[in-house]
Amino acid sequence: MSTRTRRLLLLVVWVIPIAGVVWWATKQRAPTFPSSFGGIMALVGALALYAVATLMRGERWLRILRRSEIGEASRGDAYALVPVGYMGNNVLPARGGELLRTFLLGGRVRATKRTILGTILAERVLDAVALGVILVVLAAGLLRRLPKPNEALVLAGVALLVLLVLGAAVAFLRYRERLVFVLRALAPMAAPSKQLLSRFGLVLLLVSLAIWGVEASVYMAVGHAVDITLSLRDGLAVVAFTNAAALIPAAPGYIGTYDAAVIFAVDAVSSASKSSVLSYLLLLRFVLFVPITVVGLGLLVVRYGGLSRIRAARAAARAEAATATA
């Protein structure tokens, strides 16, 4: 598949959910935003709670870094690079913020870029497991409301899975030596995740569940601002479902897929009107995406030297990769 074809396919994948959400929004009444003291304070509380969740993510990453023997990493860098990474994920495709964190921290510690990226992958593993637990335990009702596929679709999916497995087997047999070389090169990335198979990993999993609990409180506070009542159970279910949907390839900021998941999930757990759900979606997007993007950009410029520092870090990473393969 050519580069142009891949880009066109990616564009289609991005455009379809965005177009669907925009079409749905145009069919609703104009959104209304809180003007009362209680509604405004609910938004302030939501922002404060999200700041707490972000700091908890920074502390969790610091523990993973130190467990991976990257002791030079400071608490300041761990806390600052989390919003920088979120800023990158919100404005760059393919979760580019994770690479930003890798490059920027790589210039401050002696660890390799692959090891640093491995610590970020360990974070993603913890989040995936925590969200999976919440999704299975609390969001089963949402999953039951999804359209049930017909038998032909299930058979087609099974056939596609079999073809993918066969293709992977053929590729392994044909390019076995190259694959072994790649796996050895990627081994440092897997080391931090392997360390999660311990009491340390169990503690961090509990911390991850607490982080998502705080984030569920953010969803609840935003709901209170627009008169949508969400219990803690509802908030956790919506958080798990929407963040699982964020795994689907989407435009920067998860535009389209995330929005559709929020609309579906809130409609499933509440009796709010469509216009109230639209107001909720817009305010939730503001709380979760705008402040952390602004803060991350500010930290990138003030603490890490802006885009010029990123270019230098990328050049250093390429030089390191060239040395490793020489």
Describe the structure.
- The protein is an all-alpha fold.
- It has one domain.
- It is built from 13 helices and no strands.
- α2 (37-67) packs antiparallel against α9 (199-225), α3 crosses α12 and α5 packs across α9 (199-225).
- The chain starts with a helix and ends with a helix.
- The mean pLDDT is 82.
Task: List its salient traits.
326 residues; mainly alpha; 13 helices; globular
Order of helices and strands: HHHHHHHHHHHHH
Instruction: Give a short account of the largest sheet.
Output: none
Question: Using only CA atoms, what is the Rg?
Answer: 21 Å
Q: Name the average pLDDT.
A: 82
Morphology call: globular
Q: How many separate domains?
A: 1
Distance between the termini: 29 Å
Helix segment count?
13
Q: Tally the beta strands.
A: 0
Low-confidence stretches: none
Instruction: Name the structural class.
Output: mainly alpha
State the share of residues found in helices, binned by percent. Answer: over 70%
**Beta-strand residue percentage:** under 5%
SSE inventory with pairings:
Blueprint: H1 3-26, H2 37-67, H3 75-91, H4 96-106, H5 113-138, H6 140-144, H7 151-174, H8 176-194, H9 199-225, H10 232-245, H11 257-269, H12 274-302, H13 306-325
Helix pairs in contact: 2-3, 2-5, 2-9, 2-12, 3-4, 3-12, 4-5, 4-13, 5-8, 5-9, 5-10, 9-10, 9-12, 10-11, 11-12
Summarize the structure.
It is built from 13 helices and no strands. Helix 3 (75-91) runs antiparallel to helix 4 and helix 5 (113-138) crosses helix 8.
